[in-house]
Design a protein that fits this description.
The complex is a heterodimer of chains A (about 190) and B (about 180).
Chain A lengths: L11 H8 L1 H16 L6 H14 L3 H13 L4 H9 L8 H15 L6 H9 L4 H23 L8 H14 L13 H4 L1
Helix pairs in contact in A: 1-2, 3-4, 3-6, 3-8, 4-9, 6-7, 6-8
Chain B lengths: L13 H6 L1 H16 L7 H14 L3 H15 L3 H10 L7 H15 L6 H9 L4 H23 L8 H14 L9
Helix pairs in contact in B: 3-4, 3-6, 3-8, 4-5, 4-9, 6-7, 6-8
Classes of the chains: A mainly alpha (about 190), B mainly alpha (about 180).
Chain lengths: ~190, ~180
């Protein structure tokens, strides 16, 4: 059970965003712009940034949700295993490895990002905007992970829940689900 | 110097916000609701203090000075008092409830899982509402984002702390909705 009374029984972040629509709206919009907006990074690449940060923050709900989204976008279990344990040997481009390394530094602290991390990414072809978005996505997940765990939200165990959630995130993105039919997860709570 | 060419000379978070106005606008909206919206039982000063304390723990010079100056303005205190709160809030004469909320914010800064049910129960026993606890956690989490955005891109910050104090009354009057989005 969450540490505070919510107005719904949705798990993880979904319950928090529905509980407080005033703060939920800009958080959803920021996520939609960064993870689904126009970008030279693919949706999969941006989900990998969300996944590596959530994993390192040990946020089970966010790690499960975004790793399932990586799968829904065409990734596989080996890719995820490397992202968790050995990102330098992940089957991604050198540019993406450099951006994942920046994201991992942001997860530690802003000041942990050093000139050498940035120059590596630039040498591998990363643009200023790609570096900007990598830092902001990583920082955003430092918000999400703390919000989800800091309020002790419910984290479903059933992989089927995350598959359903990921299917929605992969096809519909991060807007507020208007159709109550897509309010998934309430049944798994009970 | 910032790590990327921001195409403007603005300090701190204002640089990347103007560089990417689409995300800048939304970040401002979030700050406005969390810190400036009057529909909140936590005072503006208390909310700014939570942001200041987390920014200090994250060692973000720009954010701790911007928001420390805002807290100082609302609380009609001086810079020394804000500095004492950052260093050891338990030893300052702020309310027990605010101390309990700052303790929760300090745990959020370290990691979401660091917040304990005992900390939450203690804050509730001192009168903190669910909404106040929610806002404390989200403000602390939001500053873990803002601080990383500012320092992860190595933005520059004025070193004279009085500059931040001088700007605070204007920001308090205007709020955050349009903050820094014009050059």
């Amino acid at each position: 059970m969450a540490y505070i009374q919510l107005n719904n029984q949705l798990p993880g972040i979904t319950g928090l965003l529905e509980n407080r629509k005033d703060t939920g709206a800009p958080i959803r919009e920021l996520t939609q712009i960064l993870l689904r907006g126009e970008s030279t990074l693919t949706e999969m690449e941006r989900e990998l940034i969300a996944t590596i940060v959530s994993y390192r923050n040990q946020c089970r709900f966010c790690t499960n949700a975004h790793s399932a989204t990586v799968i829904a976008l065409g990734g596989d279990a080996d890719l995820l295993d490397k992202i968790y344990h050995d990102p330098e040997n992940a089957p991604v481009s050198e540019k993406m490895k450099a951006l994942l390394a920046i994201a991992a530094k942001v997860q530690e602290l802003g000041k942990s990002v050093k000139e050498e991390h940035i120059s590596r990414a630039k040498k591998a072809g990363a643009t200023d905007l790609e570096i900007h978005d990598t830092v902001l996505i990583a920082a955003l997940f430092c918000l999400y992970n703390r919000y989800v765990d800091g309020l002790g939200t419910y984290c479903p165990e059933d992989p089927a829940y995350y598959q359903k959630l990921a299917s929605r995130l992969a096809t519909m993105g991060y807007g507020s689900p208007k159709d109550p039919g897509v309010r998934i997860g309430e049944e798994s709570f009970k | 110097m910032a790590y990327i060419d921001l195409r403007n000379e603005l300090p701190g978070i204002r640089g990347p916000m103007v560089y990417r106005p689409e995300t800048g606008k939304v970040l401002n909206e979030l700050a406005e609701i969390l810190l400036h919206d009057e529909n909140n039982t936590l005072s503006r000063g208390e909310r700014e203090l939570i942001g200041t304390y987390v920014s200090s723990e994250n060692d973000c010079f720009f954010c701790q000075n911007v928001h420390g100056a805002m807290a100082q303005h609302y609380m009609k205190s001086d810079m020394q008092f804000i500095d004492r709160i950052k260093k050891d809030f338990q030893a300052t004469p702020i309310s027990a409830k605010l101390k309990s909320l700052l303790a929760i914010a300090g745990s959020v800064q370290k990691g979401g899982k660091q917040v304990t049910p005992e900390q939450i129960e203690y804050a509730k026993s001192l009168g903190a509402t669910d909404r106040e606890i929610h806002d404390t956690v989200l403000i602390a989490a939001a500053f873990c984002m803002f601080n990383r955005y500012v320092d992860g891109l190595n933005t520059w910050a004025p070193q004279d702390r009085q500059i931040y104090v001088d700007r605070a009354p204007m920001r308090a009057a205007e709020g955050y909705s349009q903050a820094g989005l014009v050059k």
